[in-house]
Design goal:
By secondary structure, this protein is mainly beta. It is 1% helix and 43% strand. The chain has 1 helix and 37 strands. β4 and β5 form a beta hairpin. The two termini are 45 Å apart.
């Protein structure tokens, strides 16, 4: 939708700025076939016709004027300037619960009265709300530029993903108190998956406005650099009801927590119909795994992070791990829709894979199967669900009784192997 624009001035000759914000969110959940589902790993599903329909509509219109205001019947053209902004020293600790204050200062050559800019954040760091606002102005100390009459309009993620857009002006057309000084500040949080080292914020569409003739000066695109430590803390959890989860960590874990087992999915067995899972005793950094816990698990893990291994998507065998959130339409995601955890086909529906979670990419020959169960036993694997004894061979309960079919959630002995039946 095109952003509404305003170009003009009041009868008194004072430039005016109008900010307009419209936000509409619609969430519609349609009944799924069978029992309503509980997402094991995936937070957002859009237009999922086969399992769950969730429609999100977000419409935001922002007028960030400070554009070619008419003066004396003619528009004032943009002028380039070398004036720019700087940032304070900020060191982020990935995964910390702390928030960090980022302070922006102007290095200017003349007195301005208003500005606008966009700041693009990299994956793993984002601004946080401070009493329902993202940005606050400096306007109390001698080195602050803004007056109490200056106001700021802000949006985050509305115009562009991970972009903080802001515009500042005074309805009284009050100029800044100086050519250089503190403009604004905001606070950020650091994800456990933030890449260590330099954290670069990209500043674009940066314009400064003078009082005289409403002249607009366009600043060069620039960057602001924060820093992230080479360490992280991640909250790890496995559902106590579904017993399964996935994870990918930015650091190695030499010893698994008590009660948690981990599996890699390297490839298919000799039949080409079973994805073989191999149990591992420790977790490698930036490597995706399937987790199992009989009673569930929740805890935090910490470790040193090697930035050279970083990638927004990592892979190992048939598993893919999201270090930054990923929108995917193909592959399989681990879900529980009341029948135990299974890998469900995305089937062209867009899923948002959160950071730290994984999905399965099956070979083309198996990609048409709607879901795959998980088998844990002497040989472990992911397989298309079936209950026929003629396919599995003889099926026995743990107390030795032969049965014709396996029930979801039950553990059986099939061909000498213990099998957990997911469906």
């Amino acid at each position: 939708m095109r952003e509404p624009q305003f170009v003009g001035q009041t009868t008194s000759g004072v430039p005016t700025l109008f900010l307009c914000s419209l936000s509409i969110s619609i969430l519609t959940t349609c009944p799924a076939q069978g029992t309503p589902g509980v997402n094991v790993d995936i937070l957002t599903i859009k237009n999922n016709c086969s399992m769950r329909n969730v429609y999100n509509l977000s419409i935001r219109a922002w007028l960030l004027s400070l554009l070619c205001l008419l003066v004396g019947g003619r528009a004032v053209a943009n002028e380039p300037t070398d004036d720019h902004i700087t940032v304070n020293e900020v060191t982020l600790v990935p995964g910390s619960t702390d928030t960090y204050q980022v302070e922006i200062s102007l290095v200017g050559s003349q007195i301005y009265t208003a500005y606008q800019m966009d700041i693009l954040f990299p994956p793993g760091v984002e601004p946080v709300l401070m009493r329902d606002v993202y940005v606050k102005l400096f306007n109390t100390d001698d080195n602050d530029l803004c007056s109490s009459s200056h106001t700021i309009g802000v949006s985050y993620g509305a115009i562009k993903e991970r972009t903080l857009r802001m515009s500042c002006a005074s309805l009284q057309n009050t100029p800044f108190y100086g050519k250089s000084g503190k403009l604004l500040y905001f606070k950020v949080k650091a994800s456990p998956y933030l890449k260590p080292g330099d954290v670069v914020l990209q500043v674009t569409n940066f314009d400064l406005i003078t009082n005289e003739n409403a002249q607009k000066y366009h600043c060069k695109d620039q960057t602001l650099t924060l820093h992230a430590k080479a360490e992280s803390t991640v909250n790890l959890s496995v559902s106590g009801s579904s017993h399964y989860g996935t994870c990918v960590l930015p650091f190695a874990v030499p010893t698994l927590p008590d009660g948690v087992k981990a599996y890699s999915a390297k490839g298919l067995d000799d039949t080409g119909k079973l994805v073989v899972l191999s149990e591992v005793k420790q977790l490698a950094a930036y490597t995706p795994y399937i987790l199992y816990s009989a009673f569930g698990y929740s805890g935090s893990l910490s470790g040193a992070v090697d930035a050279s291994q970083y990638g927004e998507v990592v892979s190992d065998g048939l598993l893919r791990g999201a270090i930054a959130p990923q929108k995917r339409k193909d592959g399989y995601v681990l879900q529980d829709f009341g029948e135990g955890a299974k890998f469900y086909a995305m089937d062209g529906v867009e899923f948002l894979i959160p950071e730290g979670k994984c999905w399965l990419e099956m070979p083309v020959a198996q990609a048409s199967t709607p879901q795959y169960g998980i088998q844990i036993g002497t040989t472990t694997g992911i397989t298309a669900p079936t209950t026929a004894a003629t396919v599995h061979g003889r099926i026995y309960t743990l107390d030795g009784k032969e049965v014709k079919t396996m029930q979801p959630g039950g553990i059986y002995v099939v061909n000498g192997k213990k099998v957990l039946k997911i469906k």
